[in-house]
């Protein structure tokens, strides 16, 4: 087996389809309004149905999608959709896969897209058996804000709207692996953009990319991001293997931590290369850099909470 854990041609075609959907990022001020048209296009490409039990998609399909969605800075609760899909009634699940109904998942303190989503789930305990989720509706809203990653978030009392469901370990791992792949893809997009800039911007009649103080840190971060992407694909191969979730938990956990760390570092180093314009609202990192920061924080929280260990 190749040690780079490659995608199939079908998965590469899938990524190209998603890249076309996300080719034009929305303006930052429009992002808090849920992008339903774009979400429907992502659904049409098949990225919202990857954990449907009868679809036959594998972990590497999830990683391929997350990679492409991260490179495009996809807004919306994608990994949460993967998590709760199997906990929805059949009619609702079909509507979710078609992009007609938007689910989200969070807690009473922070429910992303809580005011826009059609179905809400409270995230509960997760352990070796899976991840417990409960359908809820919003009660009294205590606070609303737009998060660092341009997502509107609600803090509210959550009113149970159905019995608690157990999302199986395999699906829970797929959702976390999707988040890891998203972060690795976003990190690669950040680096590819800043490398182009470094090849065009000049100082002292030289391209800044020719200075070792610029080129070497970017090369180091590029290695970290590529390693994180490889770890996500390795975890996918393990999860798709004969032992499945039993063998893959530790690999998924490692991939999640590595992607969070590498994508954060990619944004930091890109800011150093761009200089002051990297921080401007209309600058090259305003939308994707902030989304990476938010998603990486979520990934780090999940990695801390899920104490997975290697299979014996």
TrEMBL record:
Pfam family example for this protein?
Acyl-CoA_dh_1
The record ties this protein, via Gene3D superfamilies, to:
Acyl-CoA dehydrogenase/oxidase, N-terminal domain, Butyryl-CoA Dehydrogenase, subunit A, domain 3
Please tell me whether the keyword Flavoprotein is annotated for this protein: yes
Record domain Acyl-CoA dehydrogenase/oxidase C-terminal: where:
174-288
GO molecular function list: acyl-CoA dehydrogenase activity; flavin adenine dinucleotide binding
Please give the cofactor(s) recorded in the UniProt entry for this protein.
Answer: FAD
What InterPro entries would the database entry show?
AcylCo_DH-like_C, AcylCo_DH/oxidase_C, AcylCoA_DH/ox_N_sf, AcylCoA_DH/oxidase_NM_dom_sf
Q: Which domain of life is it from?
A: Bacteria
Q: Where are the transmembrane segments?
A: none
**UniProt keywords, alphabetically:** FAD, Flavoprotein, Oxidoreductase
Q: Which family does it belong to?
A: Belongs to the acyl-CoA dehydrogenase family.
User: What is the protein named?
Assistant: Acyl-CoA dehydrogenase/oxidase C-terminal domain-containing protein
């Amino acid at each position: 087996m190749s040690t780079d854990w490659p995608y199939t041609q079908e998965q590469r075609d899938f990524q190209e389809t998603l890249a076309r959907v996300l080719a034009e990022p929305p303006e930052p001020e429009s992002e808090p309004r849920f992008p339903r048209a774009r979400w429907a296009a992502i659904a049409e490409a098949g990225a919202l149905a990857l954990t449907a039990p009868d679809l036959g998609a594998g972990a590497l399909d999830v990683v391929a999608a997350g990679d492409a969605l991260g490179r495009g800075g996809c807004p919306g609760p994608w990994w949460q959709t993967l998590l709760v899909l199997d906990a929805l009634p059949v009619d609702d699940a079909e509507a979710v896969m078609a992009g007609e109904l938007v689910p989200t998942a969070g807690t009473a303190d922070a429910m992303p897209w809580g005011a826009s989503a059609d179905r809400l789930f409270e995230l509960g305990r997760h352990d070796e058996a899976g991840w417990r989720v409960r359908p809820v509706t919003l009660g009294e809203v205590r606070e609303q804000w737009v998060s660092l990653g341009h997502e509107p978030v609600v803090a509210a009392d959550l009113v149970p709207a159905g019995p608690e469901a157990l999302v199986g370990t395999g699906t829970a791992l797929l959702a976390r692996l999707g988040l890891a792949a998203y972060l690795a893809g976003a990190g690669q997009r950040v680096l590819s953009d800043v490398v182009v800039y470094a090849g065009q911007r000049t100082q002292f009649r030289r391209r800044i990319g020719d200075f070792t103080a610029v080129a070497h840190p970017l090369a180091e971060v590029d290695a970290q991001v590529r390693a994180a992407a490889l770890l996500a694909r390795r975890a996918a191969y393990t999860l798709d293997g004969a032992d499945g979730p039993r063998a893959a938990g530790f690999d998924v956990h490692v991939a999640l931590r590595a992607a969070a760390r590498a994508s954060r570092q990619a944004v930091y180093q890109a800011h150093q290369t761009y200089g002051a314009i990297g921080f401007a609202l209309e600058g090259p990192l305003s939308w994707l850099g902030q989304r990476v920061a938010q998603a990486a924080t979520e990934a780090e929280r999940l990695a801390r909470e899920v104490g997975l260990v290697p299979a014996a």
